[in-house]
Amino acid sequence: MNNGFFITFEGGEGCGKSTQSRKLQEYLQQSGRTVVLTREPGGTGLAEGIRRILLDPNNAISPLAELLLYEAGRAQHAADVIMPALRKGHIVICDRFTDATLAYQGYGRGLDLATIRRLNAVAALGLKPDLTIYLDIPVKEGLRRSKALGKESYIDGDRIERESMAFHARVRKGYLALARKEPKRIKIIRTAPSIDGTHRMIISTVTYGLVRRAKTGKLCR
Questions:
Q1: Predicted confidence (pLDDT) per residue in 79-123, tens digit
Q2: In which domain, by residue range, is 105 found?
Q3: Which CATH number do you get for residue 29?
Q4: Cα torsion at 95, 117, 119, 61 (round to 10°)?
Q5: Which residues pair with 28 in a beta bridge?
Q6: FRET partner for 201 with CA separation of 20 to 30 A, picked from 10, 43, 57, 132?
Q7: 5-57 residue pLDDT tens
Q8: Residue among 170, 166, 191, 188 nearest 179 (CA)
Q9: What string of DSSP letters covers 28-40?
Q10: DSSP state of 41
């Protein structure tokens, strides 16, 4: 994909992905790089509409319907935003991607992992992140932080945040399992007490990946 570099942020509720994604974008832009910051579900008009459906706590959505909605948004997002940017040699930072679907719909909802992987590959047009930053935080603390932020304008949390503690524990367990399977791509960063402390750890990890790409032409994985 020319010299493009695809970075994704993953993690449970309240881990700070959105904040850290923006801080990384600012850091890389200050070093003269062209950076596209995007998110899932979202990133395009269609996908943002799907996001509103998925997160609205008033919507009752079956696990399979939920999975297919995420994949539909991803297909549009990959085609319209991620793939074109990578072809131009840009750095793409995405707040959640295919690993989130495995963690939430696979480990969290109990849907078949093999089926999700096949759908992920199709919807993502075969794209796979060069580097994934997984921000790990205890479930209880993450949900406390998320509720305090009141994100997405839902006072008591969005549809996913309102899931049980057991659900979110399964999601975290899933993320850690994925990281164990692909340690070269998925880097676990335990969230530091301060935003800047976490940011410094992320910068170190991303810099290593970019330097390795520049020297060897190989991806982090």
A1: 999 999 999 999 999 999 999 999 999 999 999 999 999 999 999
A2: 5-216
A3: 3.40.50.300
A4: -70
A5: none
A6: 43
A7: 999 999 999 899 999 999 999 999 999 999 999 999 999 999 999 999 999 99
A8: 188
A9: HHHTT--EEEEES
A10: S
The encoded tokens of residue 76 equal: 């549009």
pLDDT, averaged across the chain: 92
- 124 within some domain: yes
Domain count, the chain: 1
Asked if omega into 41 is within 30° of 0 (cis), the reply is: yes
Q: Is the dihedral of CA 112, 78, 86, 9 positive or negative?
A: negative
In a domain, 91, yes or no: yes
Nearest to 191 by CA among 144, 153, 129: 144
CB 64 within 8 A of CB 111: yes
Beta strand 5-11 with 35-39: parallel, antiparallel or unpaired? unpaired
> What stretch of H or E contains 93?
strand 91-95
Structure tokens, 26: 């600012």
Contacts of 106 (CB under 8 A, 6+ apart): 112, 113, 116, 174
CA distance 128 to 55: 25
Residues 74-83: tens digit of each pLDDT: 999 999 999 9
Answer yes or no: is 13 within a domain: yes
Is the residue at 82 inside a domain?
yes
